[in-house]
């Protein structure tokens, strides 16, 4: 991968960070005694104590972390992406996941870097009120590679991943949802659920407070958690039923329409122990044998069991594109290209770009590139719509001396000066600016090249 070298100023900042954080280490340790901080918060406190929040690089790092939460990338699970954190330019990842109560979010992070580095992973509940900050619900130690969280409420969750200042490397992140409970009938799965939460019952007088899993009569029904059997009885509606108390999660599991009950009240059971056998007792007489499975949270009533037991059959997507392009420039190769909010053709449209628009590849997911657009936003474009910039699209001869700029902006910094008469290879076009390549391989921008 073609990586931009760290500038002298960045190296100087790194030395300052090391010096200041070392000098304030005891102060931060003392603060930690009185205030419990997450690793991210402790790191921010260290930056502020060292007054690095008043430097340009420190301010950029803090702003990048906030932006990751304010404009996260929506993703559908399971999700996998690889990309690069540059050492000389702060970058943070923000992902938005629609999560369901009872499922377990599992985030795995793999880093490849020359030096050991801290990477902060923080999970938040997204606020429905724009004026309120998201609520943090989980975090990892700065050297941990896995974050696991059992979702408490149906709502969007935000994941932020950000490395420490002036450290870089290649990342691969995987996000998936897993069940928190064992499926109550061994060998079956959510594909065997025939009636779901909320289905109408008694001509619409009530709704279904559980899921129905169909299986042959006499099929074993198992404990989905370690717990204590609290009730074994028979009711007109549920027939032969068993209640299993899940003390760790503050809820009761309800097994109904059993043909036989094989445990007694007060009995302690482990995951996988047989509780009874599938039947159709109670108001299920006349229907095929099945298990009605419900979950009732202490003091809060019934909740949808499906996310608690559903194991997605979708495989974790692999990165199918050329990952060596990460960190490099590409250009749009088609007449017009749609850029999406997430790596899916069904995702919301972020923008449309014309041919030869330059894009910087910052990541890859499945057969999509995550790219930084000319406006500095990040989104996804399918790999078949871009090409490398090794071959110029034109060679233009300058009629007069022109400044070589470091960005496609009239007020950008000048990297060099191009003499009149110079023949410059143009590799991409952004409005009135051409991305050009110097004989030494450097890239830069020229306004209205002729």
UniProtKB/TrEMBL annotation:
InterPro entries assigned: Cell_wall_metabolism_enzyme, DUF1058, Dup_hybrid_motif, M23ase_b-sheet_dom
PROSITE patterns with a match to the protein in the record: PROKAR_LIPOPROTEIN (PS51257)
Gene Ontology molecular function: metalloendopeptidase activity
The M23ase beta-sheet core domain, residue ranges: 207-300
SUPFAM superfamilies (UniProt xref): Duplicated hybrid motif
Annotated transmembrane regions: none
Origin: domain of life: Bacteria
Pfam families for this protein: Peptidase_M23 (PF01551), SH3_4 (PF06347)
Name of the protein described by the UniProt record: SH3 domain-containing protein
């Amino acid at each position: 991968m073609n990586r931009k070298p760290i500038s002298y100023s960045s190296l100087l900042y790194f030395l300052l960070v090391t010096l200041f954080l070392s000098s304030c280490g005891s102060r931060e340790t003392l603060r930690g005694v009185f205030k419990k901080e997450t690793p991210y918060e402790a790191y921010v406190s260290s930056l502020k104590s060292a007054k690095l929040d008043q430097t340009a690089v420190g301010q950029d790092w803090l702003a990048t972390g906030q932006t990751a939460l304010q404009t996260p990338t929506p993703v559908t699970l399971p999700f996998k992406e690889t990309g690069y954190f540059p050492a000389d330019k702060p970058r943070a990842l923000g992902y938005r996941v629609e999560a369901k109560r009872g499922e377990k979010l599992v985030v795995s992070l793999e880093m490849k870097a020359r030096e050991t580095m801290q990477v902060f992973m923080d999970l938040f509940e997204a606020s429905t009120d724009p004026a309120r900050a998201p609520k943090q619900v989980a975090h990892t130690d700065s050297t941990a590679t896995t974050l696991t969280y059992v979702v408490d409420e149906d709502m969007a969750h935000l994941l932020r991943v950000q490395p420490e200042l002036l450290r870089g490397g290649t990342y691969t992140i995987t996000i998936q949802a897993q069940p928190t409970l064992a499926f109550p009938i061994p060998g079956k799965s959510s594909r065997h659920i025939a009636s779901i939460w909320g289905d109408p019952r008694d001509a619409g007088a009530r709704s279904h407070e559980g899921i129905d899993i169909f299986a042959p009569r006499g099929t074993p029904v198992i404990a989905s958690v370690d717990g204590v059997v609290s009730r074994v009885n028979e009711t007109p509606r549920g027939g032969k039923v068993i209640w299993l108390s899940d003390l760790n999660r503050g809820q009761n599991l309800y097994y109904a329409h059993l043909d036989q009950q094989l445990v007694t009240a007060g009995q302690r059971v482990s995951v996988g122990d047989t509780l009874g056998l599938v039947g159709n007792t109670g108001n299920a007489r006349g229907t095929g044998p099945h298990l009605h499975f419900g979950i009732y949270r202490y003091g809060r009533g019934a909740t949808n069991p499906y996310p608690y037991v559903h194991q997605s059959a979708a495989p974790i997507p692999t990165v199918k594109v050329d990952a060596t392009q990460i960190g490099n420039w590409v250009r749009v190769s088609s007449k017009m290209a749609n850029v999406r909010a997430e790596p899916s053709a069904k995702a919301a449209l972020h923008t449309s770009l014309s041919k030869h628009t330059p894009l910087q590849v910052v990541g890859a997911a499945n057969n999509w590139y995550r790219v930084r657009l000319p406006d500095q936003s990040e989104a996804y474009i399918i790999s078949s719509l871009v090409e490398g910039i090794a071959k110029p699209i034109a060679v233009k001869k300058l009629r007069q001396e022109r400044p070589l700029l470091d960005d496609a902006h009239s007020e950008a910094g000048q990297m060099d000066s191009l003499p009149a008469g110079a023949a410059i290879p143009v590799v991409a076009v952004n409005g009135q600016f051409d991305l050009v390549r110097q004989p030494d391989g450097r890239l830069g921008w020229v306004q209205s090249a002729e």
